[in-house]
Amino acid sequence: MPDTVGAAGVTVVKVAVASERRPSTSRLVGLGLLLAAACLLPFSLSPFLVFQFTQVLVYAMALLGLNMLTGYNGQISLGHGAFFALGAYTTAIMIDRWHVPYGWTLPVAGVLCLVVGFLFGIPALRLEGLYLALATFALALAVPQILKYFDEWTGGSQGIVLSKPKAPWGLRLNPDQWLYFLTLFVTVVLFALAWNLLRGRIGRAIVAIRDNPIAAEAMGINNSLYKSLIFGVSAAYTGIAGAISALAVAFVAPDTYNVFLSITFLVGVVIGGLASISGAIYGGFFTQFVPNYAQTISKAAPWAIYGVVLIACMYVMPRGVAGTLRLLWARMRQRGRQ
Predict the structure, then answer these.
(1) Quick one: which of 226, 262, 290, 296 has its CA closest to 77?
(2) How far is CA 308 from CA 222, 291, 302, 322, in A?
(3) Is 326 exposed, middle or buried (0-12, 13-18, 19+ CB in 10 A)?
(4) What are the Cα distances from residue 217, in Å, to 10, 13, 77, 119, 248?
(5) Predicted confidence (pLDDT) per residue in 107-136, tens digit
(6) Domain ranges of the chain
(7) Global pTM value
(8) Would you tell me which CATH number, out of the four given (3.30.1490, 2.30.30, 1.10.540, 1.10.3470), belongs to the domain 46-288?
(9) pLDDT of residue 23
(10) H or E element: which one contains 252?
(11) Tens of pLDDT, residues 18-52
């Protein structure tokens, strides 16, 4: 036991040191330029492409939430499509039934998913590994079917049709451009919050639980509390993403949030890079564009093309896109020093 505790202590110290590093000036400049390019993007693209990039940001938020749970805490979830659906239907019902302004529906969707995710995480504490994955998989199977039985609220199998919100304050933006900027703003806020969360005490605790839960408990970390908390935060991120997706698509239906969506989220996290904040962006691009390109290449067997691309990505980039880029950057710096 002392050796185990010592190993976990070293791990926590390493994570603490890494998390306390301030971003360099060059990195901040790079982020600023990237954000400026993202702001100019919708003025040079067609409305459909703007919509697609909005979906990239939506998926990035959902993948970041799942990555905090799976990549940083080690809990495998195959049911985050259910939280995505819950957030989407919360926004749709509040707008369509209660005529609530869409801006208020986003925090409500996040808080609701936070509570549901936290409560679901409590009984899930008894499950580990594949058993937890199966429990969340059952959640992804059940939620779309449950949504069909409350016609007065959810519209049943027909779903709910919404209207895309117009730009406020007299801004000369079409609905797709406005939703893109709204999504970009929410994405930046959520990524900043995740960065602060993961570099602090909570982040060190959930990583320690992932690496060695027994040693983490011996060091005074409340495993049950932190695992339930990160499950709720992960669900909240995914729920907010679902809420914005409902506004962007202007339609929600149970079959849209089938179990394949949950699997797609997990694939996006792995492709982007586990335990990486920037990996959520790369995973968002993969989730949005690769299925579309596969459909373009072969309309007869698009998922065969998708599978080939997925296998190729895993073979070439076993650490995900973010991990591979970090490795290449480290090698380039090492060669530069030589």
Answers:
(1) 262
(2) 42, 11, 10, 20
(3) middle
(4) 15, 16, 23, 21, 43
(5) 999 999 999 999 999 988 888 888 999 999
(6) 46-288
(7) 0.91
(8) 1.10.3470
(9) 62
(10) strand 251-252
(11) 444 456 787 788 889 999 999 999 999 999 999 99
